[in-house]
Amino acid sequence: MAKRDDETRTTGMIVRSDTDDVIEMDTSSELSESESSLLQAIVQKYLNSDFNGLPVYALRANQEADALSLIRKKLIDHVQTVNPHIKLFAPLDHEDQLRAILSLDGLSDGCLYPCPEVLRNEVDRLAYEGRPYSLELALGAPQIEHITFDVSVLEEFRNDPRYDYRVDDIHGAIYDNRNEAHEISRFGFSFDSNGHRYVAIYRRDLYSMPSKLQGWLKRYQSDEKSEIHPDYFKTTIMAEFPEGASVFDAFLEEKFQIQNICRSLGRPLLFKSEFRAYKRPDSFGFLLRLTSKEYNDFAMLLDRLMSDDISKNFFGSDVATTDEEGREKGTIRILEDWCKNYFVHHADYLSEIDEMLRTFKKVRKERSKPAHTISFNQFSPEILDRQRELIRDAYFAVKTIRVILMRLPGAQMEDVHDWFEKERIWMR
Hints:
A hairpin with a 5-residue loop joins strand 7 and strand 8. The chain is elongated, with a radius of gyration of 30 Å. By secondary structure, it is an alpha+beta fold. Strands 4, 5, 6, 7, 8 and 9 form a 6-stranded antiparallel β-sheet that branches. A 3-stranded antiparallel β-sheet has the order 1-3-2. Helix 12 packs across helix 14 (347-372) and helix 12 runs parallel beside helix 15. The protein is 41% helix and 11% strand. The protein is built from 16 helices and 11 strands. It folds into 3 domains: 5-119, no CATH class; 126-236, no CATH class; 245-426, no CATH class. The protein has helices spanning 5-11, 33-47, 64-72, 94-103, 116-119, 132-138, 155-159, 203-207, 211-218, 230-236, 247-265, 292-305, 331-342, 347-372, 382-405, 418-421; strands at residues 54-55, 76-79, 111-114, 146-149, 163-167, 171-176, 182-191, 197-202, 227-228, 245-246, 425-426.
């Protein structure tokens, strides 16, 4: 049976009522000499290391009572995780910490950390001048809590040839080409309740950046609450394989598999380019600025990967490539004629083929709009929704081509990703 509260101050044991699970906290501010000494040891361990906690195993036998008292006074936290030597996430409430310790019959594992309220009076802020995220860690913030930034923060790196900007809409990294491709930042993405995208960087990764970059990023920080991309969390924290892939990579992988099918059929390739998942053309991804110009540029690139990328050699003599007057047909018209000639007896595919062709024409129309109108560059959050719809339709269009080609005798795909086979596609 747990001891009563009046016994705790002398024994150091955690107490709770025999009739409920209420943990009684100590609201007094006075510290004994031994408590004060232990608190300073925990603070110094934290500030003079890489923000590590003081291991429980390092406590002397008579210090456990002081540690429990400091937890009851909400001056330190007990962290017991897979890696307790760094404070990955926000600790449990002190009451829950004490319940966990009670369930284990005392302190037996984990590390002790000073609470932010204590560190506010201990940290020399001038020592962290120009390093806002290093200061946050010094003040006790969790290391693997993500900070959100406006996606436009990436634009400068994307447009500057001095940097190598790599992204798959789940993960991203920026390398300095002037310094042997040294990695200067890694990041992920997060979403608010309205589906708006943000750059997400763990505080630990921000801490590792030089002061100039930390200060520059601070200008783009957003106060919006967001949830980190599930696959970014799985791959960076849980050390697990991602569940899916971005719709942009899925689109390119569909095209890549179409090329493999063409090879298996002994036909010329349908597309001129050989992009595939994780090997994208520049700027093929979610927009960094929600402007009409960025959207129009994306529509042009998408059309180049669709209609403009079709090779007439694929069709051979199956269909005429000129009309009755001898004029060259466009690639969409040739594709339409070929599909209807080859699959006229497959009624179950005709509606999908019609939808596929409508998408090819829609993308071509979106590309052509700027060429026929004079308009000002405009900003609108709805532009992201328009882009999502366009790439979603484009993905299903090339998927339809791949599916109908697989109906031909001898058709085969190669090197198929697990997410591709199970159609686990991230549309955000």
